[in-house]
Design brief:
The structure is a homodimer. The first copy, chain A, is mainly alpha-helical. Chain A has eight helices and no strands. At the A-B interface, helix 5, helix 6, helix 7 and helix 8 of A face helix 5, helix 6, helix 7 and helix 8 of B. The first copy, chain A, binds a DNA duplex through loops.
DNA sequence: CTCCTTTGTGAACATGAATTCACATGATAC
DNA sequence: GTATCATGTGAATTCATGTTCACAAAGGAG
């Protein structure tokens, strides 16, 4: 097959990436040692040169995923100083990720890994927590800057933000692309923005 | 084991229920013929007296789930004529379902079934569609009655409503009950309600 | 060039889960 | 009460997948 031999560091990355793709494309069932190996152009047993077993491979895939998603959030921080614009940008990036990868919904939103390795569940949870923290930070800064309503709980708002995308992502891949994620995101954002932004006109109604 | 023999109709229901529970408790991995059989107090091969195979069993479980969830929505319609109150009630029922079953997130929100039988994916999609339609109907009625903002797209709003619960459900079972779903639902609802309710005070700002 | 380590290969092995089948046993009609 | 059919059982079969192992080949060090 592939005549070349590569260093184990390179291979580990390749394999982790392939595993993530496999997971994205076919769900947990497609995350088999054989399938991943074939993606990289290797034979199943070769995987064991670079990983202790399937579990370690899965963990590596989740780790790679975290890198990508956090990079996503980090980049947004540099785009704009305004919290609302940042959130909108995150949302748009999500939409793009959904249309490219489909990995996001499968990894973060799904329970795919729950039945997998013991640590996977905690890792996924860790990813989500990190991500939510990132969102919550943006929100807090927005509140400090006076653009986001101060009476909102940042954590709750972050989870709600996640809720703007999650169902859309599920629908997208359940309909195999038939659901218009972009349109949904645009409309939902419009409503959500109104809900969390400080009113520009001269009003100050209470939260409830 | 179980000395009694039951009619196949009764058994089918029992098995479907057990399958749903198994799915709820342990995810797709736990949805094995053997595990389900054990739950009912049968031996694996006995399942084949009532179902053609695992796929048909899975489909039955999804069907049973649809019954339950739609019953949930139907009941709310009788509780109150007001759209907002109905939505709040649906939300509360969801919270309760999450804490009892955990079946909901696993079935509706997850891709668990994607790798399963060919038809399962479409069935799950059908369930979600039905559910969203039910929500959208409530929203439309609210708009007609003048309690929900008319400029909102009912479908988008229904999906957003789903987004109030979905991430919370995932977090709930990822943290094994550590995430406070009730509190999140209460807070998120407060914000969401403000976003979709017609302002009672004398204002009429545009949607965007 | 030669040696030695690392990486890749194919076959073999283990395991778990779905499915089938011959047989047993409960329920039911006559 | 007996015959019959539906339901339940346990063993056997098949299949997919994770994993191990002995061997081959690439690539660098000397």
């Amino acid at each position: 097959m592939s005549l070349e031999k590569l260093g184990t560091e390179v291979r580990r990355r390749q394999i982790a990436a392939a595993a993530l793709e496999a997971l994205a494309a076919g769900g947990p069932k497609a995350l088999s040692v054989g399938a991943v190996a074939r993606r990289v152009g290797l034979v199943p047993s070769a995987i064991y040169r670079h990983f202790r077993g399937k579990d370690e491979m899965t963990v590596a895939a989740i780790g790679l995923f975290r890198e990508r998603i956090m990079e996503n959030i980090r980049a947004v921080r540099e785009e704009s100083p305004d919290a609302l614009e940042r959130l909108e940008s995150v949302l748009n990036r999500h939409v793009r990720m959904i249309r490219d990868n489909i990995a996001m919904p499968r990894v973060v939103f799904s329970d795919s890994l729950a039945g997998g390795p013991a640590g996977a569940k905690k890792l996924v949870l860790g990813n989500i927590r990190l991500y939510l923290d990132g969102l919550a930070d943006i929100i807090k800064e927005g509140q400090a800057a006076g653009t986001i309503r101060p009476e909102l709980a940042p954590e709750t708002t972050a989870v709600m933000f996640l809720g703007l995308i999650m169902p859309a992502a599920i629908l997208w891949h359940l309909t195999e692309g038939g659901f218009d994620v972009t349109r949904h995101a645009a409309r939902a954002w419009s409503t959500f923005r109104n809900a969390i932004a400080v009113n520009t006109s001269s009003q100050k109604r209470g939260g409830r």
